[in-house]
Structures are given as structure tokens and as C-alpha cells.
Amino acid sequence: MIYHNPVIFVPDMDHGDPAILKYNGKYYLYHTGQYEILVYESTNLVDWEKVGVALTASNDKNHWAQIDLWAPEIIHYNGTFYMYVTGAMTKADGNADDEIRHIGVAKSTSPIGPFILNAEPLTNEWSIDAHPFLDDDGQWFLFYNVRNEYTKGPNGVIGCGNVVDKMIDFETLAGNPTLVVKPEMMHEGNKEGTWFWNEGPFVLKKNGVYYQMYSAGWFGDDTYGMYVATSKVPMGPNGMNDTTWKKWEGGKPILASNAACFGPGHHVVTSGPNGVDKYVVYHGYEPDPEKKGRKVHVGKFEWQDDLIKIEEPTLEAIPAPSLPTVDCRFDDGIHSINKSLASHPANSFYFETNLSTVNPENSTLGGSLSDENGMVLKWTIDPDEKAFEVRQGDSHNKTLLKNDPDFSTYQHLSIEKTGDVVALQVNGLVVYKRTIQSSNLKVQLIEDPSVTYKGTLLTVL
Length: 461
Prior knowledge:
about 450 residues; mainly beta; 9-stranded mixed sheet; 1 helix; about 0% helix
């Protein structure tokens, strides 16, 4: 199967600042809108269907989000979907007041919406482009963009830069924004050199190093591109004067305009349908000037040692993202899921599922890894105590789960075995990592009728 970019194309419509939420085996895509944010659905990252309006601007004349709903990014936690979105107030002439933009939160019980805006914004200064990031220890951070005296570009010209702050909870910041990157070179602005940008943060972590991918240049033409900066800590110690983060190659782009796409940037990174391969989803302009507005592109994301490699835009056909070896993403029957899993034992594999129970106090959540000689590892979750237990041979390990997961709502579980090392994660946080020398392991889930599983997959590595 193949696909062509852009993956979402509506004539004369702008699809800027796309963001992806992966939930229960499906993908949901959101993008910037003037008065509303649309939501699209997909199972493979390349075929999208519009399924509704996720968010509508407020008609309250005193509200912070009356117009210009920019750069939405969504996370799920305990049954609530949190949208971090920029909004502006409307001037008397009907246009947005560019001096009064804020990031705020909108909430929903469904990824499709409707999302309801909070009455007050999350930030108290000019701010756009929010990106929530979960660190290994369970601490959430918000990376976002500000425009002030500290973020000016070359020669003191007006510019905006990215900052980071701790999240007290999903609707409260600590209030100590710390500088990450700001424009420092002429190519980070428009061609006239009258305005500069470092914006659109997205953060990854690998081998103890934080990678903040961001966009620089003017979003309206081919000066726009994708960049990266690194740090050993998410927040430096010196507030808006901090210089902890360092730009890769002194500010060299990792994705720039070419003949197939102008101004590629403002992106997110997500896993493909097989749960293993990584993809970058970004906006860009088509080379045909008659095709107006930014369109959604999808490209392969790869690590080359500790460097990030992004597939360059092309007008040619591209191989579609690979499907899982065992694809039970839309199979709700636990018996048939286990039967499919049992037929694919593997030495190295990636497994994921989302599980919930209607009876947290009396349910058995868990599963096992077995080889031809029997059970090698058994894991269980106590949803009442919020504890994760693993028995491997004679050893017994118990870990209290971070961030207070509510198992009456869907929680994400993954298991990855690479060589002899097996790692189990709950909601993106490692709860167990050990060596297992057994080969040809099969994954099985405990068949409790009060427990449901969605988005289940296994990919042989």
C-alpha cells in the first residue's frame, strides 16, 4: 500500500499546526482554525475522515478565546481529554487582537468533543503553541511560545521563543517559565529581517537527553523549517536568562523547504499503526501556488544514533505505515485476542493495549509471558491500590503507579522485548525492566469478564 502527501487536502482551506492524539487504536487529528477546530479520524495515519467540530470559539465578549484557535494539542488522562489551545480576543473591527493571545485549556469526555473552554486562560502573558510533555519520573511540563523582551531576535528585532514550565496539574502551571530557545540567526526570521520566530515545540527524550524539536522562520513562506535543540535537563536554573538548551549544529535545520513542500514545520511525532515505527506529522504549502493554505504531511521519523532524521517531502508515492503483526486494535473479544497473540510467539516484539474495568475493586487485570516450558513472567495490576506487580521466577517486584490512574477509564499498557531485555510501561512510564533469556515468548491477557481491552496489537521485531 502507498500514499501521497498531503494526506489531508481541502481546496482553499488551511490545515496549519496539525496535532495527533492516538487513543484506543485510532488516530485523531486537530489543526488550527479561526472560529472552530475540526477533528479527523484515521486507523493508519494516511486515510482521514472528518468526524466533527472538536472546539468552537467563545461568543462571550469577555472571554480569552473569541477567535484564532491556534495549535491545539491533546492528551488523555483518566477519561478526560485536555486540549491545550491558543485563543485571542476580537477587536472592534472583527479581527484578532494580536497583543492579547493566551494559551488555555478545553476539556471533553471524548476525543471528538465537544471540548469546553475553561473560563480563564492557563497563561497570563502573550503565548501560543502549547506542548505538554511527560518526563520519566511522572512530572508533566508545558513547553510553549512567548513574545517578550527576552525573546528578541538578531539586532534586538521583535521575535518569539520557546519556554518551559512545570505543570502543577493539567490546568495549572507553576508560574516559572524558563527559556528554551529564542531566535539568534537571520535565517530564523522573514526575508526582510523584520520579525523572528522560534516556535512550535515538541519534545522527545532518548538516553537521558531531551530533544526539543521546533520551527523557525516565517510560517507563510519557504523560510519556515524544522530544527532541534538538546539538553540534559528539561528546565535550566536561570529562568528567562537560561542558556541550558543548545541548538543542533548551531541552528541547522533538520527539515527545510524543497520542490515538493514549502515551509514544512509545526509538527508532532507519533507512533505508526504497528506501535513501533515513528512518524512526523507537519504542515506545509504545496508547490502549486493555486493550492492555497497549509496542508497536512506525514513522513518517517528515525533515530540515527543520537541524531534525528526526517523523511524529506516528495511528490512521489510513499510506502504506507506498516500494520502490526497481530492487529486486534478493533477486536473487543478477549478470547479471540488471546488466540491471535498465542499464534505469534517471538524473541523480540512490541505489544500494547488499553485496559479498563467496570469493577476496579474486584477485577483481575494482568497477563503473562510464556515460552514452550511454561510461564516466564506474570504481571498483575491492583486497580484499587494502584500497584503493578511482576513475578519472574523466584523474584517478586511491586511498583506503585504514578499519577493516580483510574482503571474505570482506559489506561495504556505496553511491553517491549528487545534481545534479552523486557520493559513494561503503564501510561508511558516504565514500571518494570529486567533481563529474560527465554526465547519465543507469547503474550497472554487474563480473561476477566469485567475487564475490556482496546487497541491491542503485537509487532514482531
